[in-house]
Write a structure and sequence with these properties.
Largest sheet: 6 strands, mixed
Helix content: 40-55%
CATH topology: Rossmann fold
Distance between the termini: 11 Å
CATH architecture: 3-Layer(aba) Sandwich
Number of domains: 1
Shape: globular
Structural class: alpha/beta
Oligomer: single chain
CATH class: Alpha Beta
Order of helices and strands: EHEHEHHEHEHHHHE
Strand content: 5-15%
Strand order of the largest sheet: 5-4-1-2-3-6
Number of strands: 6
């Protein structure tokens, strides 16, 4: 195995493709899924488990963040919800990555998308972690990502409505500055939110079928 990375695995289309691309280049990929439990049920977590098994990830950790995300939505400027929650996820992911010996974080983000994925917003998110965030889909368009997802068999699992924006605003900020982000984060007890989320973390048992045709040798 090569370098170990921690994939922020949602139930959507993009992050499984990012995980596949890095695994096919020899990286050992662990996964972490951030669940909105107990605000929602564990359906998204179960979907992430299916994706992790399809991709044959080494490990998958589930972190319930419903209370933390609700506190961000209630306490801070809602326009920054997606940026602030992503910064929290990156902080939590860094703690897990360091514990598991992962030297990089990995996401399915690409530029030009809404909410947290504009260039100014990505620039505001990155300083939340001292680990480098790898984004292999950064220049992909959606159709290219969907094509790969279909080829590797993750598209069908990822299909369906996503609930990651359940608490988000109708019109999120797309030009977040670090000063604005820091001002809003000052309203939170960030270290406490990280600590409480990690206290509820669970490692998901993965059951692998036979090696699939798309998996790297």
């Amino acid at each position: 195995m090569g370098e170990r990375v921690l994939l922020l695995l949602s139930g959507g289309i993009d992050s499984p493709v990012a995980g596949y691309l890095m695994a096919s280049r020899g990286f050992e990929v662990h996964g972490v899924h951030f669940s909105l439990e107990p605000i929602t049920d564990d359906a998204a977590a179960r979907k992430s488990q299916k994706l992790a098994e399809k991709l044959r990830l080494s490990k998958l950790f589930i972190v319930p963040v419903g209370p933390a995300f609700a506190e961000i939505a209630r306490t801070c400027d809602r326009r920054l919800y997606f940026v602030l929650t992503k910064r929290l996820m990156v902080r939590i992911a860094e703690a897990i990555a360091r514990r598991e010996g992962c030297r990089f974080l990995l996401t399915g983000e690409s530029i030009g998308q809404v909410s947290s994925q504009t260039l100014p917003n990505l620039r505001a998110i990155d300083p939340a972690s001292s680990l480098v965030v790898l984004r292999p889909l950064i220049g992909f368009d959606k159709e290219e990502t969907i094509r790969i997802a279909r080829e590797i068999g993750t598209y069908e699992i990822s299909e369906g409505p996503e609930i990651c924006d359940l608490l988000g605003p109708a019109h999120p900020a797309t030009q977040a500055s670090l000063d604005w982000v820091h001002d809003e984060e000052a309203r939170l007890q960030v270290e406490r939110l990280v600590r409480e989320a990690l206290s509820k973390e669970r490692e998901q048992r993965l059951i692998f079928a036979e090696r699939s045709r798309f998996e790297p040798a």
